[in-house]
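Look over both lines:
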Amino acid sequence: WVKIASGIDYLAGIRGSYSSEIGALRVIAGIYGTEFVLHEVISETIGAELPSPLFAGRGDVVLVTADDDKPAVGIVYLDGRTVMVPSDQGTGWATRSIRDATHGWKI
């Protein structure tokens, strides 16, 4: 619709560079970053983002920065101050402070 209404094909540079929804997400992540894609997928799945991640309580979903400086999806722990994220090795959990969260969603 945007192309028809404006006469400009904003996706011309990436059109044809993917053949699936996952492929499209990879292309978009390459342009806008993984945090953008995670944010959009979580918002579409869960709903509206909280005004601040500090409003997240136990069991809520947040985005934090992992040890490798990449965004990670975490769950607020029972104390309401700790965020549990999968470890870099994928074999357990790592913790972050809720203050490290960049976005949050109420479950």
